[in-house]
C-alpha cells in the first residue's frame, strides 16, 4: 500500500467560453508516469453531491493538463475535481480538491473580426465570441460591447481606443497607411472583460475627392424636447436634402443596417438647411442616429457624417414660467410652470425637476442681499417680507439625475402691501394728541376769557356815568391833552334831592350851560373852552363862600 509517487499540486482550471482545461504541477523525479482525474457534480445544489467519477478527457494523460469540456454541461452548478499520479499499478494519493462553478471563473473568448479598406476608411464587422456554437456560456450575444484598439504599424505608434458596434466604420485615418487593430468583447451585466482578438493589419486607401454639395457641420439643437437638425451648405447651385434616421438598437445587431435608414417625415426634398425631427422621437429611452443626404441637380448624392441623439441627454432644459401673487397671509406665493409648457409631460416625468428660486429686494443693489431657495414642488412661498417693498423673483429648473440646469426665467416683480398696523398707530396717536390738546386748551381758554371780561369791564365799561357825574367830572378833569373832538354820547338825566336850595339853582344853571354847550356844533377853540372853565370856577367859589 505504500508508494513513492508524489501527488500533483497547484490544481487549476481555465475556462474560456465553454472550453475547460485542467492544469497541475508535478514535482517528482519519476519517469513514465501518467495522470488521471476524477470529478463529482453537485447538481441543483445537492449538498452530498454525486459519487466520484472519472473525468472524461483526463485519463492516463502524459502531459500536465487536459481538456475536459465534454464533461461539463451545467455551467451554474458546482463541481469538484482531483488528480493523482499513476505508474503501472502504482498510484499516488489524490491531490487536494479543486472546487469551481464554471460560469464564475469563465472568461470571454476573443471575438471574430472582418476588415475592409475603402474610400479612406476601414469597415469592420465583428462576430460574437461564441458565434456558430451550439453550447454557449454567454446566452445573450446582444449584451456584448466591443472595444477597439488601433494604431499605425510604425515604430512610433500611438494607440487609440474607441467603442464600436458589431458593424461599424473607422474613420479619421491617414491615407495609404497600414493600421493594426484588435478587438475585445466585454459583458457589462457581469462586469467581465474578454480576451483580445488576434491582431489584424490593413492598409488604408485614399479618400474620394470632397463633394462640394455635401452637408457639413451637422449639429443638433434640442430644447424642451423639441429637436432640430442644422447643417451648412457650401454649394452655390441647386441642392436638395433628405434627412434620414436610424434607430439605435439596429446598430447593436450583427446584421447589416445600411438598408434600414428611413426618411424623417417633413424633411424630404427640402432646400432649407434645417429640419424639425421631433416627430420621430417616440421614446425617451432609445437612441437615434441622423444623417443628411444631399442631392444635386444631376441626381448625385452625398451622405453627411452621422450624429447621435439620446433624447434625455441631448435635450436641454429651458427656463420655467413664473407667476407671483401676495395673499392675505402676507406671503409671497410663487407659481412655477415647468419648462416646455403644460403639454410637455416628458420634462416633468423623466427629469425629476427641482427649482432654484432667487429673490431680492429690488431697492437694494447689493448682490449679497439676493436670497436662494430650492424646492421640488411647483408652488413655493416666501415669508418674512418687508411691507411696502418691491420684490423681484427669477427661477431656474435643474435635474440632479441628468446633471442639467436651465437658464433663469424672466424677472418678475411684485409690491408688498403696506403695514396695516401703522395707520392704526397713527390714528391712535392723533386722537390721543387731540384729546390732550383739548384738555390743556379748554381751561386756558376759559381763564383767558375771564381775564378779558375783567379788563373790558374795568377799562371799557359798556355804560356812561350819570349826567351830574359826567358834567362835574367834565369840568373838574378837563385836560388840554384830551382830544377836542368827541363823539356824541347819550345824555342821561338823574334827579337828586339837594339839601341846599342855592346849590340846586347852581346845578340847574350848570345843567343848562352844559346842554347849551352840547348843542353847539362841531369844533370850538381851546381858548373859549378855557375861559368858560375859569368863569365857572369863580362863580362856584363865590357861591360857596
Describe this structure in words.
Strands 3, 4, 6, 7 and 8 form a 5-stranded antiparallel β-sheet that branches. Among the domains are: 9-100, Immunoglobulin-like, CATH 2.60.40; 112-204, Immunoglobulins (Immunoglobulin-like, Sandwich), CATH 2.60.40; 216-314, Immunoglobulins (Immunoglobulin-like, Sandwich), CATH 2.60.40; 321-416, Sandwich (Immunoglobulin-like), CATH 2.60.40.10. It is elongated and about 180 Å long. Strand 10 and strand 11 form a beta hairpin. The chain has 545 residues and is an alpha+beta fold. Mean pLDDT is 82; it is low at 471-490 and 495-545. Helices cover 19% and strands 34% of the residues. InterPro entries: FN3_dom, FN3_sf, Ig-like_fold, Interferon/interleukin_rcp_dom, Type-II_Cytokine-TF_Rcpt. Residues 535-545 have a biased composition (Basic and acidic residues). The chain crosses the membrane at residues 421-449.
What brief labels describe this structure?
alpha+beta, 545 residues, Immunoglobulin-like, disordered C terminus, 5-stranded antiparallel sheet, 8 helices, 33 strands
Amino acid at each position: 500500500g505504500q508508494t513513492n509517487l508524489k501527488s500533483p499540486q497547484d490544481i487549476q482550471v481555465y475556462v474560456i467560453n465553454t472550453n475547460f482545461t485542467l492544469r497541475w504541477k508535478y514535482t517528482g523525479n519519476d519517469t513514465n508516469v501518467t495522470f488521471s482525474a476524477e470529478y463529482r457534480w453537485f447538481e441543483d445544489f445537492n449538498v452530498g453531491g454525486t459519487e466520484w467519477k472519472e473525468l472524461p478527457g483526463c485519463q492516463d494523460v502524459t502531459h500536465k493538463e487536459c481538456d475536459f469540456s465534454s464533461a461539463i454541461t451545467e455551467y451554474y452548478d458546482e463541481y469538484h475535481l482531483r488528480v493523482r499520479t499513476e505508474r503501472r499499478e502504482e498510484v499516488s494519493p489524490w491531490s487536494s480538491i479543486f472546487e469551481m462553478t464554471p460560469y464564475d471563473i469563465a472568461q470571454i473568448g476573443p471575438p471574430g473580426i472582418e476588415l475592409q479598406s475603402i474610400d479612406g476608411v476601414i469597415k469592420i464587422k465583428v462576430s460574437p465570441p461564441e458565434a456558430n456554437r451550439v453550447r454557449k456560456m454567454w446566452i445573450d450575444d446582444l449584451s456584448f460591447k466591443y472595444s477597439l484598439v488601433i494604431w499605425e504599424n510604425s515604430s512610433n505608434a500611438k494607440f487609440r481606443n474607441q467603442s464600436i458596434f458589431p458593424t461599424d466604420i473607422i474613420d479619421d485615418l491617414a491615407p495609404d497607411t497600414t493600421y493594426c487593430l484588435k478587438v475585445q468583447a466585454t459583458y457589462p451585466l457581469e462586469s467581465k472583460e474578454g480576451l483580445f482578438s488576434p491582431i489584424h493589419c490593413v492598409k488604408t486607401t485614399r479618400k474620394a475627392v470632397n463633394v462640394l454639395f455635401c452637408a457639413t457641420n451637422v449639429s443638433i439643437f434640442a430644447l424642451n424636447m423639441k429637436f432640430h437638425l442644422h447643417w451648412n451648405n457650401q454649394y452655390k447651385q441647386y441642392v436638395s436634402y433628405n434627412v434620414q434616421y436610424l434607430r439605435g438598437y439596429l446598430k447593436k445587431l450583427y446584421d447589416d443596417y445600411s438598408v434600414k435608414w428611413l426618411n424623417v417625415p417633413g424633411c424630404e426634398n427640402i432646400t432649407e438647411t434645417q429640419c424639425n425631427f421631433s416627430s420621430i422621437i417616440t421614446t425617451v429611452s432609445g437612441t437615434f442616429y441622423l444623417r443628411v443626404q444631399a442631392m444635386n441637380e444631376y441626381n448625385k448624392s452625398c451622405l453627411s457624417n452621422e450624429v447621435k441623439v439620446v433624447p434625455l441627454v441631448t435635450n436641454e432644459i429651458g427656463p420655467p414660467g413664473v407667476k407671483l401673487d401676495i395673499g392675505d397671509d402676507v406671503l409671497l406665493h410663487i407659481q412655477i410652470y415647468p419648462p416646455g409648457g403644460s403639454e410637455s409631460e416628458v420634462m416633468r416625468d423623466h427629469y425629476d425637476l427641482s427649482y432654484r428660486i432667487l429673490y431680492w429686494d429690488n431697492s437694494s443693489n447689493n448682490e449679497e442681499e439676493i436670497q436662494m431657495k430650492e424646492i421640488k414642488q411647483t408652488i413655493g412661498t416666501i415669508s418674512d417680507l418687508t411691507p411696502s417693498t418691491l420684490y423681484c423673483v427669477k427661477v431656474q429648473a435643474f435635474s440632479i439625475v441628468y446633471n442639467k440646469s436651465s437658464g433663469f426665467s424672466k424677472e418678475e416683480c411684485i409690491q408688498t402691501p403696506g403695514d396695516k398696523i401703522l395707520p392704526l398707530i397713527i390714528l391712535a396717536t392723533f386722537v390721543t394728541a387731540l384729546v390732550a390738546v383739548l384738555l390743556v386748551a379748554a381751561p386756558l381758554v376759559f381763564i383767558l376769557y375771564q381775564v378779558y371780561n375783567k379788563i373790558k369791564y374795568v377799562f371799557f365799561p359798556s355804560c356812561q356815568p350819570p349826567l351830574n357825574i359826567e358834567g362835574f367830572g367834565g369840568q373838574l378833569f378837563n385836560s388840554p391833552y384830551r382830544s377836542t373832538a368827541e363823539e356824541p354820547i347819550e345824555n342821561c338825566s338823574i334827579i337828586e334831592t339837594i339839601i341846599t336850595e342855592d346849590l340846586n339853582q347852581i346845578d340847574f344853571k350848570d345843567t343848562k350851560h352844559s346842554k347849551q354847550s352840547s348843542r353847539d356844533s362841531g369844533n370850538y377853540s381851546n381858548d373859549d373852552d378855557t375861559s368858560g372853565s375859569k368863569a365857572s370856577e369863580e362863580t362856584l367859589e363865590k357861591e360857596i363862600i
